[in-house]
From TrEMBL:
<protein>
    <submittedName>
        <fullName>Uncharacterized protein LOC127750379</fullName>
    </submittedName>
</protein>
Length: 261
């Protein structure tokens, strides 16, 4: 039996030869969600074909679906999530959902979930996940690409996705044929008499909302694997070594010599 846990900020395994994570620092991971899938990837790289995750958080379900295709390329066949709330328990086939959605849409699910509301990003008032899912046109490649970008690590979301996200919000509030949230606000407020509470936010507020969604979907949920790849590249390059969970620089075998001498 293999046990993997944290000792302060360092990941430890009782079978260090069966885990590439032993000794790695997880101090830079803001949430445990990403760390969980770092462990799943480690299991897959050491031969696991079927993985079961137990959780009570819908974020985990979304992340599992969004990362299945990445893990499948490493050898994973089935990814199950045991989702429990109180006495209710469900087994969710994340791999089946991801396969049905396809690679791009499954990957974009992180950004979609963050943008439409999660623990740290506000929801659009009166608009739940079912309404948001209906507004996401599966044939709209630009919209899928915009959500996919929100789920990738970046300092700030690029400006070119804002008009696409505006179209999504307009569709969410059923304000077509408006092309912007400003037009939608005017139509819903003046022509239909909607209260301010039930019309879209301003463009400025939408831009800030997009930045929050990008931070959650990309920097937190989407960056765990990037950090691990960076760490491995340094360690495997021959110029660094791990010592007590830290990277220690060491001289290259050819240090001080010309190549080929």
């Amino acid at each position: 039996m293999q046990v993997v846990t944290n000792v302060k900020d360092i990941i430890r395994s009782n079978l260090s030869q069966n885990s590439a994570l032993n000794g790695i620092s997880c101090a830079g991971m803001e949430e445990a969600d990403g760390r969980l899938f770092l462990h799943v990837q480690d299991m897959v790289q050491h031969g696991a074909k079927c993985v079961l995750i137990r959780c009570s958080d819908t974020d985990i379900v979304v992340i599992a679906i969004s990362y299945y295709h990445h893990l499948h390329k490493l050898g994973l066949k089935e990814l199950w999530v045991q989702y429990s709330v109180g006495t209710s328990k469900r087994f969710i086939s994340a791999h089946s959902i991801a396969q049905k959605l396809g690679d791009d849409r499954a990957c974009a699910l992180r950004g979609f979930h963050a943008f439409t509301g999660c623990d740290s990003v506000s929801f659009f008032n009166g608009k739940g996940k079912a309404s948001a899912w209906t507004a996401w046109d599966p044939t709209d490649e630009q919209m899928t690409r915009a959500f996919k970008i929100l789920g990738m690590p970046s300092k700030d979301p690029p400006d070119h996705i804002l008009p696409v996200l505006e179209r999504f919000v307009v569709a969410l509030y059923k304000a077509e044929p408006c092309q912007s949230v400003g037009e939608a606000r005017q139509q819903l407020f003046t022509a239909e008499g909607k209260p301010l509470l039930f019309i879209p936010c301003t463009f400025g507020a939408l831009k800030q909302h997009t930045r929050r969604a990008s931070y959650q979907g990309g920097q937190i949920w989407g960056s765990w694997n990037v950090g691990m790849m960076f760490r491995r590249r340094l360690v495997g390059g021959g110029r660094w070594r791990m010592a007590s969970g830290s990277l220690i620089g060491q001289q290259s075998p050819t240090s001080g010599k010309h190549a080929g001498t």
